[in-house]
Amino acid sequence: MQSSPKMIEIHKIKINSVEEAFNLENEVTKVDRDVLLYLNNPRYKDMMTKYPHLKGINIQDGDSKPELLVHLILGTSEYARIKTETRPRIGKPGQPVAELTRFGWTLISPGKDVDLTNMFLTQTSSMDYENLCKLDVLGLEDSPEGSQQSVYDEFKEQLVRRPDGSYQTGLPWKGCHPPLRSNETGSLKRLNNLVTKLKKRPDMLKKYDDVIKDQLSQGIVEKATEKADGREFYLPH
Predict the structure, then answer these.
(1) Is 121 in the same domain as 204?
(2) Which domain holds residue 196?
(3) Which pairs from 47-55 meet CB under 8 Å and 24+ separation?
(4) Based on the number of CB atoms within 10 Å of its own CB, is 160 exposed (0-12), middle (13-18) or buried (19 or more)?
(5) Domain contains 156
(6) Residues 110 and 209 reside in one and the same domain
(7) Residues 6 or more apart from 40 whose CB is under 8 A from it?
(8) Which of 103, 134, 165 marks a domain boundary?
(9) Rounded distance, CA 218 to CA 235, Å?
(10) How many CB atoms lie within 10 A of CB 192?
(11) Rounded CA gap, 88 and 164, in Å?
(12) Are 130 and 14 contained in the same domain?
């Protein structure tokens, strides 16, 4: 998983209700983007007509634009603070649910076939910032679990083409891992065990020997004449 430093601005704001003497004080995280989020216009007036259980509900947002700009996103903890004891309006399965909050009526996605693409929640404390980044709202991408992209990127950075046309790169090492001890002893032990088994099959041992001699003659492998200096790694076979 990769990480990148980024300055995050956290501000204290007060949100006032237009219908009652209520305000919500909270900390918000500033998103450094021209547009935070667009949502398709749900067209509340049409919904009031379409669903009988929403009759009598007053939602002041009558904007007719096809898309609505989102300026502020509240998290689930803030929503719990603005809920009221008024019984929610619930229709048939799959229909929107209306709840009365301190800021007026709000419509919630139905409990069936929920469109999660529009259900973005922004946390308002620095402790929840990590979850916010997972939404990619801040332009930060969280690598999926098990992703090998960082390993591949490092491989490409180390890849060098030699004058003879061959390529050279470093062995893949796990990032932030302490230096490994030399595996010379273990590799020699495995090699000796393999030779012992092959001695019981002289024909197979000869085939192994022929392959190695052929690789030596073609320059695929070569004898290590110099003493290892620094990090070293031994291939068991």
Answers:
(1) no
(2) 179-224+231-237
(3) 47/96, 47/107, 51/91, 51/95, 51/96, 52/91, 53/89, 53/90, 53/91, 53/95, 53/98, 54/89, 54/91, 54/96, 54/98, 54/107
(4) exposed
(5) no
(6) no
(7) 66, 67, 68, 118
(8) 134
(9) 19
(10) 10
(11) 75
(12) yes
Query: Are 128 and 196 found together in one domain?
Result: no
Single pTM value for the model: 0.41
| pLDDT tens, the chain, 237 aa long | 455 566 778 888 888 887 777 888 888 887 777 777 777 888 888 888 888 888 888 887 778 888 888 777 777 778 888 888 888 888 888 888 888 888 888 887 764 444 444 444 433 444 455 555 555 554 545 555 566 777 777 777 888 888 888 888 877 666 666 776 778 888 888 889 988 999 999 999 999 999 999 999 999 988 888 887 777 778 766
